[in-house]
Structure prediction request, 871 residues.
Amino acid sequence: MTTLTGTSSKVILRTTGVSKKFGKFVALNNISAEFSRDAITSIIGPNGAGKSTYFNLLSGAFPPSSGKVEFEGRDVTNVAQHEFAHMGIAKSFQITNVFPLLTTRENVRVGLQAFVSRYDIWRPRAKLPGLVEKADALLAMVGLWDRRERLAKELAHGEQRALEIGMALATNPRLLLLDEPTAGMSPEETRVMMDLIVKLSKERTVILVEHKMKLVMGISDRVLVLHHGELLAQGTPTEVRQNEQVKRVYLGQREH
Amino acid sequence: MTQPAVPSAGWFDFAKRHRAILASIFVLVFPLVMPFTALAVNILIYGLYAVGFNLLFGYLGLLSFGHAALFGTGAYLCGIAIVHLGWPWYAAIVMGILGGAVMAAGIGALAIRTRGIYFAMVTMALSQCVFYLFYQAVDWTGGENGLRGVNVRTIDIFGLKLDFINPLTRYYVVAAFVILALFVLSRILASPFGAVIEAVRENEARARASGYDVTRTRLITFILSGAFCGLAGALMALHLSIVPIEILHIETSGMVVMMSLLGGMGTFFGPFVGAAVFLLLENLVSIWTVHWQLIVGAVFVICVLFFPAGIWGTILKRINK
Amino acid sequence: MAGLSFDLIALQLFTGLALGAIYVLFAIGLSLIFGMLTVVNFAHGAFYMVGAYVGLFLLSLGGNFWLCLVAVPLIVGTIGLVVERFLIRPLYGRGIDYPLLLTFGLSYVMVELIRIAFGKSGYPFDTPEILQGAVNIGVGYFPLYRLFVIGIAAAVLLGLWLFLERTSFGLIIRAGARDPQIVRVLGVNVSRVWLFVFGIGSGIAGLAGLLAAPLQGAIPEMGATILAEAFVVTVVGGMGSIGGAVIAGLLVGVVVSMTSLFAPEMAKVSIFALMAIVLLIRPQGFFGRAGLMS
Prediction:
């Protein structure tokens, strides 16, 4: 893969001076950060800090108002959203986003198909080799194999979140972006999800957005703290926990 | 091993697997049960028009109110090929298909840039523009009076001479084209692209995140829809021997929307059921009142409120329960 | 340009403004309804048409034009209230296409009912006597009635602006267009607001139809044509934007009238060319931000 000039290829994703304005509202102001390959980096901050906006910028949902986003040394600031999967970046959404009326298996299969054939209008897709088997394997990895024939809309909330991870994995990503993966989950489901994330991080880089600070401190290699659209602090979990500004922001706030 | 999600009636499963053959048999005997063969031809042609529309609306989820432009362009180009260029019938039909596809590419390139709800508005406006353009081009289209003289008397095919004037022969020729079109449609739906169409309908953002170019998918589907509608238009021109300017009216766009909803969107045969219901209502109701459109309109409103799956769609649902 | 042509152009400009005034009234209702309810009202043209016919009917009963100016919007607005309450409201939450499909089906039915009641061929509509004749506006003689139309449209706009900016109900409407959730949380009965907005929008459309009738007569198909043209206005101006509807409506009216001066057969097509250009350069329209009103 392309190596960066001047910096080691340890940096898989970088934002330089990235800002985002919605009309007059400044959601993000001048965020410069580097994300290390093969690490788990968490982006945390109170609600309204701009985490989701930053996440959307990193995952290509919309371009920044100013600044640059680089993936593996390549400028991806204005690349269309659908190209991201083909570059090796996969995402899950904050609000569950699956294909409701397709079966669980088809949800994943269609994600796999994007890398084999997108515009073929003649060949029967049943003849595309191996997609169904690969889909089943991915479903097994996220614990949904025995729900594979159900419609996605019939799955429980936690199962749908797991399905989203499965679909993200279908793109064989080097970088996995997860937006509040445990949102709306019970403690048990949360634990299962966090275990899955740690397992997945062994082979790929994971960047995750969370507002439950306690949850991510234990598993992250690095943490970024956002507040009112600014980058408040970044470092290892220990460094961040001891940061005065971070303490002030979270002081008195009840942990969710 | 999990049970299938729902048990289905054995005969229905059988019918589903052999639907192509059963449909073909049905098509073969259909004209014999209709009061007029011309009505059966109309049902086939409008059914095909609705099939083209249904690909875009039922399967992809884009509601167009400008499909008259595609249907009408197909009809006019077929007619022009025969009347002004002196081309043989098969070349004229190809022109019709291309006309529908190219017009769809043009309208689509402009309309697909808009968000979902606006698509209906923009397609309606652009279709109205097409109407004005064809209306003005009197030398080619005959303007207000329509394009006359689209006369094809015999269909020469592989040495076989078919009398196109004979209603029953005409029906079978049209049916052959429609069956061919349905075969192509079933290939498209079963192809990888067919899965992409459904994914885009289900969740556009997720389709993008999975690596699908939603805009291009929409445009391609629109063009395919245009090809089917163009073919229907060409067949209509041959059937009527004239292309009336009314074919480009907003009403013609509205008509196919009604047929599709009445029949059942997103189903394979729904459009034909819808076309049949619409045209049968027109023919039967107008026996005792000239205001059949009021009845159809009221039925449509009732369907939107209470039977959004349409007649065929509701039947399918009931059987699958 | 010679002095004579300048007068001609100026007069044509005024004709464009008069035409534009009709478009503005029609498009405002469309934008209001879309901005608040997120419904593309395909029956808007039918309400416009009904306005013209109700006017005809009242005149035939012996009423006068001034009575119609008041009664028509009220009557058509009431029809709009009934439609929203019983036909559209059940469809909220079902998917964005359903209200559209319903209003389309409704327009079909309404056109048929009018055809049954009044016949297929349409009626001429006489300009009220007191508004006949022409007035010298400096560059030439201009039909009084068209000036009147411009004046009424301006008055309605002013009244609407005052209503939206100065009354508490108007405030609710503006807030609701921005964020329906907040308005609900504040205890406002959103359903009633939507009902009212639909009624206002339809009523203004009916008024537009009444005003247009002396210019083009009353035919059952008049609604479909202006609907397609109003879609051009909303694309150019931006859906959901009142200000956009005003500017785009006048612009479209002027474009049609100026084009018919130089190339009459392209007059109608010209506005679609305008729409195509806007779609290519700025698809959301000049003032467009869906859901917001400006």
